[in-house]
Amino acid sequence: MAGRRRRSRRSRGRKLFLAVLALCLAAVYPLQEQLADDGGNSGGTGNAAAEDISAAASGVFRDGSTLEVHYLDVGQGDATLIVCGDGAMLIDAGNNSWGDDVRDYLEYQGVEDLDYVIGTHPDADHIGGLDVVMEAFDCGTVIMPDYEKETKTYEEVIDVMNQKGLELTLPQVGTVYELGEAAFTIVAPQGDYGDNANDYSVGILLEHGENRFLFTGDAEEDSEADMLNSGIDLSADVFKAAHHGSRTANTEAFLERVDPGYVVISCGEGNSYGHPHAEVLNRLREMGIKVFRTDEEGTITATSDGSSITFNVPPSESWKAGEPAGS
To answer: Model pTM?
Structure first.
C-alpha cells in the first residue's frame, strides 16, 4: 500500500538464546580486530558541522566505558540494540512475528527502559515488532521519519505510542543525542523521496571515543547521494549494510566515502529477495572489507572500548549471495 508524507498531526526464541550463548562463549573464543590508526576513518569531506558533531561525541566519552552494538538475528528484517553505560536504544524490531523475541532479548540483556527508539521507516520488517517492545518498556525519545503508511503494522505502533503518551520526534539532520558515554547524530533522511519509503529511512552516525558506527536503514541510492552531498563526515569503522545488502543501495561512491573496516548484513537465510546481492558482496570483497552476516552467524555483537572493536564471532568467509529472485 502506498505511503504518504506525515501530516502535521503528532518462537524464534531458540535463535536468540543461541545468540546470548555466543556472547558468553566470546570470552572463551575472543576475536579482537584492532583498528589501524587510519582504518575506517579516511572518508568524508568534513566541515564545521562535522567537527561540532565529533566534539559533542568526544565530550561525553570517558576512559573505561564500553559500548555494545547487538545486530539481532530477526530473519529478513532489522533490529539493533545499542547499550552504553546506563543508556540503551533500539533501532527497529524486525517483523511482526519477532516482537516477543526482541523484547525477551532486551530483558535478558538487563535492559529496563529505552532512552531512544528509532523506527527507521514504516516497512513491516523494520517496525513490525516495535509495538510489542514499546508496550513492554518505558521509552524516552521515539524517532521516526516524516512518512506514514496505511497499514495495520504502522497503526499498531502509533496506537501503542498514543496509549503510553509517547510523542513522535521527527529526525532533524545534524541533531546530536547523547547515549551514556556515546553520542549519535541524525544524518538522514535529507529530502523528499515521493513514494519511496526506503529513502525516508532514518540514518544515524554513532560515535564512542574514536569508534564510529553508521546505520542507514533501507536508504537507497537517492538518499545515499543526498548524504554524500551534505558534507557530513560519514566515515565509519562499522557500517550496517543498507537494505539487507541490496543492489539498490550500498553504492560504490557511498562505500568509498564511509570507508568501513567492517560491514554487518542483516538478512534472512534463503530470503526471497536474493539478499545480499552478488554485486554488493563483490564490491565489499574488492574493497577488502570484512563482512558479518546474521543469516550465517546469528546475532552479531560488536563491543567498543573507545579505541578498538571486538566481535563475538569471526567474519564470514562464504561470500555467498542470495538466490537471484526479486530485488
So the answer is: 0.85
